[in-house]
Amino acid sequence: MPHFDMPLDELRRYRPELTEPEDFDAFWEKTLSAAREHDLDARFVPVDAHLSTVDVFDVTFAGFGGHPVKGWLILPAGTSEPLPAVVEYIGYGGGRGLPHERLLWSAAGFAHFLMDTRGQGIGGSGGDTPDPVGSGPAYPGYMTRGIEDPHEYYYRRVFTDGVRAVEAARAHPLVDASRVAAVGGSQGGGITLAVGGLVPDLAAIAVDVPFLCDFPRSTTITERPPYREIALYMKAKRGSEEQVFRTLSYFDGVHFAARGTAPALFSAALEDMTCPPSTVFAAHNAYAGSERSMEVYAFNDHEGGGPYQQGVQLRWVPEHLKG
């Protein structure tokens, strides 16, 4: 597949003129305040996962609306003192799966908190968190659920869950609350950007080929799902464009990036037609933190750096968590 987006030198300069809602910060302050009216009720139940090198906990905490959200907490076996933690978010369609599928960060010596994504878990590892909130007419998938009202939009619930996941991780006595990083790829990268913009004291974020960025461009430059879901919704519901893009402006990773201050490691793939590189660079170039870097994979599609990028993270994240 050839490069289809901007040349790399243009990508490094790309800053789209996006319309940010005047009440963006107030919207999210009210959203998180409402979520915090519910007791976090973080519960950690030991699980025998038949793994000798880690201790596994089945996690439940109260997310958006007080709804129960699942996750895993995986610790190096025999941990007795608080550890720095990595909170991870999952790609589109996936769920938390089984503990033995996610051993990277515990093997590196960290507490690893993996958040399940509400309503997902069919297009990959299984999920265990329902989304009890309905929506109006939507195109199949998650991208257009409640899309004509930011208060009803699906990702309002998911991003709130993401913030509450950090709070739940910090609630465990074997997690050092002062040293927490957030990581994720694709949809998980988009959630990471949102959490990085909403939680001011993270130690670091690592964002791989992030989804949910620069919606006006991403919905018109690629034919691939999940962005294509939005275009097909507007194709069927003519005249909805203005309201759809207004809703999406409350959830654009570029706006969250402009509020993020933790050290940030990004990655982009120049043949990525799922999360086009210009939309990834839009978030990177808008990032407010003084320390940011970008790994570029010139001949990769949405798999990005894959295990090579994990290797970069295994060098970079400890520098910011182990101090």
Give a description of the structure.
With 323 residues, the protein is an alpha/beta fold. Helices cover 33% and strands 20% of the residues. The protein is built from 11 helices and 9 strands. The protein is globular and about 55 Å long. The mean pLDDT is 96.
State the gist of this model:
The protein has 323 residues and is α/β, with parallel strands linked by helices. The chain has helices spanning 8-11, 24-36, 104-107, 154-171, 187-198, 215-221, 227-236, 241-249, 253-257, 277-286, 307-321, and strands spanning 43-47, 54-62, 68-76, 83-89, 111-115, 175-185, 204-208, 264-269, 292-297. It has eleven helices and nine strands.
Largest sheet: 9 strands, mixed
| Number of continuous helical runs | 11
Q: How confident is the prediction overall: mean pLDDT?
A: 96
Q: Using the CA coordinates, give the radius of gyration.
A: 19 Å
Instruction: Compute the number of strand runs.
Output: 9
Low-confidence stretches: none
Secondary-structure element series: HHEEEEHEHEHEHHHHEHEH
- Structural class determined from secondary elements: alpha/beta
Give the oligomeric state: single chain
Query: Per DSSP, what share of the residues sits in E-state strands of 2 or more residues?
Result: 15-25%
How far from one another are the termini? 41 Å
Helix content: 25-40%
Strand order of the largest sheet: 1-2-3-5-4-6-7-8-9
Form type: globular
